[in-house]
Amino acid sequence: NYLLGVGRADCTGPVAEIPLMGYANPDQVGGGLLTRLYSRAFIVAEVDDSRRVVFVSADIGMVSQRLRLEVLKKLKSKYGELYRQDNVILSGTHTHSGPGGYFQYTLFWFTSKGLIRPSLNAIVNGIVKSIDIAHQNMKRGRLFINRGTVENSQINRSPFSYLENPASEQSRYSSNTDKEMVMLKMVDGNGQDLGLISWFAVHPVSMNNTNHLVNSDNVGYASYLFEQEKNKGMLPGEGSFVAAFASSNLGDVSPNTKGPFCVNTGESCNNPQSTCPIGGATMCMAMGPGNDMFDSTRIIGQNIYLKARELYEEASQEVTGPLRSAHQWVNMSDVSVELNATHTVKTCKPALGHSFAAGTTDGVGAFNFTQGSVEGDPFWDEIRDQLLGQPSNEKKACHKPKPILFSTGEMTWPHPWHPDIVDVQIAVIGSLAIVAVPGEFTTMSGRRLREAVKREFDYHGTPRMDVVIAGLCNVYTHYITTYEEYQVQRYEAASTIYGPHTLSAYVQLYRGLARAIATNTVQDLPRGPEPPVFNIHNVTLVPPLTADRVPANKTFGDVLQEVRQQYRVREVAEVTFVGANPRNSAENATEHNFLMVERYASTSDSWHVVQNDASWDTRFYWTKGLHGRSNVTIEWHIPHGTEPGAYRIRYFGHYKKKLSNSHAVSIPFEGTSSVFEITAL
């Protein structure tokens, strides 16, 4: 028995003009909302409340160091020493459709236009609020674990790298991806459902880099389906049941199951360089199972949800035993790794290789770099040398065979470009060990790490541990490939920033944490060097908010393009309003709802909300015009099973009005479509 608490809070942030974090495509800026982003928090405490563990999964690209440090600072001021570095795990789902701009290291400023305070604040506040809700609702309960295989939902996007691993190792596994989902089910003392955490390795990149709507992608759709099912009669984002679909060792795992094809010719480009005969690497894109990215997101998300539901219903293995947690900060630029009795190697100061710029078949790079580059390119190297300086010979030798494109560890203006100080952390709940990793481990890297941690527990008298990897935790350090995968330098290897021995270093470090937990010597672990906090308030190229304006003879919320009078199920109701910048609303309120779909109830002569902006069936588009004008278009993709009747769509916004040169206010407004009828098929 444990004390359990679950909580969910909005962490969406600004849905317009902020670059989306994930594909590193500066043109991919937010322009509306498909689904809200949530932080989901789970607290497990021993019944005598002597020890606690907190696990948070947030619908964001990854947890940044700045984000973690700010969350922990807030928790400390609220709860003292209850929630700390060692017992709080913050994990990102890795959606590529959430707002960026919450990083302190310079490299991430390029694609997210700096450090954007409203974006960072929304995530910090959302995570803290979700923990607050879980904290306030602690009750006695029980935990169950289950595991099963998810089919037709992933492929390895660097299969040629995977094949470099020893044949003897490959032969122990039936697939080049981890198909296993591990699920932790939570119920209260009366057996009432509280929530679940699922860990499954897949990239949430069903929505591709042409998307401009903020959303939580395939794993977010799985959460949505599970929460909608358990919170009957509630709108999305409401209700007490919380379902987190958390990330794992997804480094080389894509949901785009049709595989890579040349966009221009339709032929396969599943080759070591992921390149096409005409148009090169920029033409090679992987496709999901659906007829467009929305459909693919739905299909993959539903697959994941259906397996989770089955595992949840059938979960019978109870998790019992003490709680333990261990955390260290480590300088990953300088770890000595003992490979064996005679051989010691070292990690390197961070650097990115040429193939980093190639991107992947889920989202290609800009300048036709190709994957699998073990040679540099004289043209780009010369530009790099002129702009950023040449990498040192020592650095080149350390990273070999990676040809260095950006020697980020040697770049410090205006602040360091990459972290040196990295978190390693393990939390144990009875027989479950959650290994919190600071990046994207590939399939085989994850297997090696899990195995090493399990062996360490076994060796020190804690057998039969269930070991799961929680991905994208605490600080972002890109990818972690195996030494063998590193040699062929595809995207994941070029993005293994601490050099060829990165994985060996992590294995050594996590074994150390596991050993300390198993032998009850956590108090003797050195804390390690504290990460820096750079004094940055708001450095951004995001355009400043200016006064919103309307066309002649119009006012905010007026309808420009009306709905039709009648629709059938599966059609799309669409209305366009005179709009205002949605950033006004995000900066005004943490939980602003941009739209509602309402149904008329004749019995009570009133309107009832049937959908909000967190619904997967609604889409909110913002289009910026000239001179402060903008339009908002709302679509409702009328789902199967919608009751016939009279409906309307409402829009809620805020416009910025200048009172003087130094003072502006945000003023709320709303708009409503005409009433339309939905008829039976």
Describe the global form: globular
> How large is the count of helical segments?
14
Summarize the amount of helix as a percent range.
10-25%
Number of strands: 40
Q: What is the mean pLDDT?
A: 95
Structural class, judged by helices and strands? alpha+beta
> The biggest beta sheet, please?
9 strands, mixed
- Our Rg estimate from Cα atoms comes to 25 Å
Beta content comes to 25-35%
Number of discrete domains: 2
| Sequence stretches where pLDDT stays below 50 over 5 or more residues | none
Gap between N and C termini, in Å?
Answer: 51 Å
Explain how this protein is built.
The longest helix is centred in the middle third of the chain and has 22 residues, at 293-314. The strands form 11 sheets. Strands 1, 4, 5, 6, 9, 11, 12, 13 and 17 form a 9-stranded mixed β-sheet that branches. A 7-stranded antiparallel β-sheet has the order 7-2-3-36-37-33-31, with no helix packed on it. α1 (65-79) packs across α3 and α10 (443-459) runs parallel beside α13. A hairpin with a 2-residue loop joins β19 and β20. It has 2 domains: 2-331 and 418-524, no CATH class; 558-679, Neutral/alkaline non-lysosomal ceramidase, C-terminal domain (Immunoglobulin-like, Sandwich), CATH 2.60.40.2300. It is an alpha+beta fold. This is Neutral ceramidase. InterPro entries: Ceramidase_alk (IPR006823), NCDase_C_sf (IPR038445), NEUT/ALK_ceramidase_C (IPR031331), NEUT/ALK_ceramidase_N (IPR031329).
What are the SSEs and their pairings?
Blueprint: E1 2-10, E2 16-21, E3 29-33, E4 38-46, E5 52-58, H1 65-79, E6 88-92, E7 98-99, H2 107-112, E8 114-115, H3 117-136, E9 139-149, E10 155-156, H4 159-162, H5 167-170, E11 180-188, E12 193-199, H6 217-230, E13 242-246, E14 253-254, E15 259-262, E16 284-287, H7 293-314, E17 317-319, E18 323-331, E19 336-340, E20 343-346, E21 352-353, E22 359-360, E23 363-364, H8 378-388, H9 393-399, E24 404-406, E25 421-429, E26 432-436, E27 440-441, H10 443-459, E28 466-470, E29 479-480, H11 483-486, H12 491-494, H13 502-518, E30 539-540, E31 559-561, E32 566-568, E33 572-578, H14 583-588, E34 595-601, E35 606-612, E36 618-624, E37 630-637, E38 645-658, E39 664-672, E40 676-679
Helix pairs in contact: 1-3, 6-7, 10-13
